[in-house]
Amino acid sequence: MLGICRGRRKFLAASLALLFIPALTWLYLSAANFTVKPLPLSPLELQSSTLVGGAGERQALELRVREVEEENRALRRELSQPPRNPTHSNHHGNGNQSHPHSTEEGTGDSEAQKMFSTGNSSSCVQQPVVDKCETIHVAIVCAGYNASRDVVTLVKSVLFHRRNPLHFHFITDSIAQQILASLFHTWMVPAVRVDFYDADELKSEVSWIPNKHYSGIYGLMKLVLTKTLPSDLQKVIVLDTDITFATDIAELWAVFHKFKGQQVLGLVENQSDWYLGNLWKNHRPWPALGRGFNTGVILLLLDRLRKLRWEQMWRLTAERELMSMLSTSLADQVIHWNSPKKLRVKNKHVEFFRNLYLTFLEYDGNLLRRELFGCPSKTDHNSENLQKTLLELDEDDPCYEFRRERFTVHRTHLYFLHYEYEPSADQTDVTLVAQLSMDRLQMLEAICKHWEGPISLALYLSDAEAQQFLRYAQGSEVLMSRSNVGYHIVYKEGQFYPVNLLRNVAMRQVNTPYMFLSDIDFLPMYGLYEYLRKSVVQLDMANTKKALVVPAFETLRYRLSYPKSKAELLSQLDMGTLFTFRYHVWTKGHAPTNFAKWRTATTPYRVQWEADFEPYVMVRRDCPEYDRRFVGFGWNKVAHIMELDAQEYEFVVLPNAYMIHMPHAPSFDITKFRSNKQYRVCLKTLKEEFQQNMSRRYGFAALKYMTADNNS
């Protein structure tokens, strides 16, 4: 059922014919006659339990647990023996036993067989069939930025093979919930339901257990799934975030049909010899049954576990073990050891599993939005409304693709890398907002050197490019030294660059009171972050609607000695090293900034909106978003500045601020604009429709925009 591990990355294949997988064994935990009564759940109560009336009951339970432990030790001795070749026997044996399974597994002759029934799964047997439309439930504990990124590969592999509806149950912290909720909402995969459970509410359940494992407290939360998941949920597959499926998860779900009698728990034996205790002299690992059992994949019969009082059972066991072991080093994996060091493990199967993993890592997740035909699914109103809107569009319209892009839902992964930043308490903090694609990646380090404040970036990438970016970022000392940069991946779809959607995604993740709306090709002056914060106070930004204009310049030189002051910038401007931005191709875009006045200005000055004005501004976080109808090149910033003016923002130019545009090859979209007449026609059409919308929204005051456009 399970493939071997390569490092922390585990690969799951439901095929029983994987001959290269040694000693593959399923373990079922059976209750037999093991019944419990209510127990004190706090470890502190253990010390005083003999003073209360329930002491006899507790002693009886502890006596029964000791008996079970004796049985486990016997089983441990058997499992410590070298694995037998399954082809040598037709029986499904445990260790040296060769007794065939009866129809009532787990109820054989010995008590050990009652508690643990094992069967070698490498023989070829017909798996029970899962109903076509039966929903498969999967539970995953996921916390933090890295785990939220890793779990996507698991989900892709499950979606790729699945033929059944899926219901994911994520036990998450607030970070993972925000990331995964946004991801699944924008992924829009049919017949997939996602629910979240607050891991913070569960910490008190397991935090009393001393823990040294690298996964921290979250690994222990699998122990409380019977209490966490819905009470009417009968069974669930529990997965680690680093699993990759090589076949349909329904084949794993079908194993539940093999559970007999009072068997409640399914595990697979570890492949490591660590627990055998013979790797080196004085090697004393955590005591385990044989090689231990891997909890990266667990089958839980929740209804039976609840009847067994699983909560009390595992607590009592943990309390008893901690009396002698002092702390756990294996999270919830009492009989399983794992470590990031395993990433360097080499074996003859590593290439196969590495390629399998990389396939799903870089696989286009948009291709997984396929319907499950023949299975009625719950109505998704967002998807339904989207389809209705798209059907209303005229496919014969020459501008159909432009109009359709406005409604395209792009899969979005927020905070692709670790992010940690708390805005300053003085309410003046500013976040730089920008968007980029893969061809502008080289600008990131330079911007981080120029702007020390928080940054929110939306990156338009394919799945494969997202992994290239990850490797680039992790290999950069500059980027890895910054925890206040939020990287938000918007996955590619369609033929246009959704520039304004990207800006909106980056804006929505700003957690400071103010935003500096920039572009990735610009380097802000050194010290601009602090200068803008001071301007917030000076210009009373908190109580007025202002857009602070940062004058934009450009250079045609790839190597520029960046000016460290306004005087140095003016000198380079006079020498022809710098120019006012786009003065030679699009003067109107920044002419209202009044660069002649700026040269000598020492105090902020107000300017009026004019047609095609598109400055770079700092505004409050609650400013309007960009209009999504404008994609690719043309009018994307102009429309936004027009909206700010319509909402009566004042444009105030800062006298000692500046930014410089760095040279780069022309973008694909500007090339299309220049070479494709229909592109320009559609842009003009969208522009006129936007102006009409402005007139309807803002009335008589918006007529100036149409008049100004006609005169320009």
UniProtKB/TrEMBL annotation:
GO terms for biological process: protein O-linked glycosylation via mannose. Residues 72-119 are annotated as: Disordered. Keywords: Glycoprotein, Glycosyltransferase, Golgi apparatus, Membrane, Multifunctional enzyme, Signal-anchor, Transferase, Transmembrane, Transmembrane helix. It catalyses: 3-O-[beta-D-GlcA-(1->3)-beta-D-Xyl-(1->4)-Rib-ol-P-Rib-ol-P-3-beta-D-GalNAc-(1->3)-beta-D-GlcNAc-(1->4)-(O-6-P-alpha-D-Man)]-Thr-[protein] + UDP-alpha-D-xylose = 3-O-[alpha-D-Xyl-(1->3)-beta-D-GlcA-(1->4)-beta-D-Xyl-(1->4)-Rib-ol-P-Rib-ol-P-3-beta-D-GalNAc-(1->3)-beta-D-GlcNAc-(1->4)-(O-6-P-alpha-D-Man)]-Thr-[protein] + UDP + H(+); 3-O-{(1->[3)-alpha-D-Xyl-(1->3)-beta-D-GlcA-(1->](n)-4)-beta-D-Xyl-(1->4)-Rib-ol-P-Rib-ol-P-3-beta-D-GalNAc-(1->3)-beta-D-GlcNAc-(1->4)-O-6-P-alpha-D-Man}-L-Thr-[protein] + UDP-alpha-D-glucuronate = 3-O-{beta-D-GlcA-(1->[3)-alpha-D-Xyl-(1->3)-beta-D-GlcA-(1->](n)-4)-beta-D-Xyl-(1->4)-Rib-ol-P-Rib-ol-P-3-beta-D-GalNAc-(1->3)-beta-D-GlcNAc-(1->4)-O-6-P-alpha-D-Man}-L-Thr-[protein] + UDP + H(+); 3-O-{beta-D-GlcA-(1->[3)-alpha-D-Xyl-(1->3)-beta-D-GlcA-(1->](n)-4)-beta-D-Xyl-(1->4)-Rib-ol-P-Rib-ol-P-3-beta-D-GalNAc-(1->3)-beta-D-GlcNAc-(1->4)-O-6-P-alpha-D-Man}-L-Thr-[protein] + UDP-alpha-D-xylose = 3-O-{(1->[3)-alpha-D-Xyl-(1->3)-beta-D-GlcA-(1->](n+1)-4)-beta-D-Xyl-(1->4)-Rib-ol-P-Rib-ol-P-3-beta-D-GalNAc-(1->3)-beta-D-GlcNAc-(1->4)-O-6-P-alpha-D-Man}-L-Thr-[protein] + UDP + H(+). It is found in: Golgi apparatus membrane. This is LARGE xylosyl- and glucuronyltransferase 1. It holds the Pfam family Glyco_transf_8. GO terms for cellular component: Golgi membrane. It is a single-pass type II membrane protein. GO terms for molecular function: glucuronosyltransferase activity; xylosyltransferase activity. In the C-terminal section; belongs to the glycosyltransferase 49 family. In the N-terminal section; belongs to the glycosyltransferase 8 family. It comes from Pygocentrus nattereri (Red-bellied piranha). Pathway: Protein modification; protein glycosylation. SUPFAM superfamilies: Nucleotide-diphospho-sugar transferases.
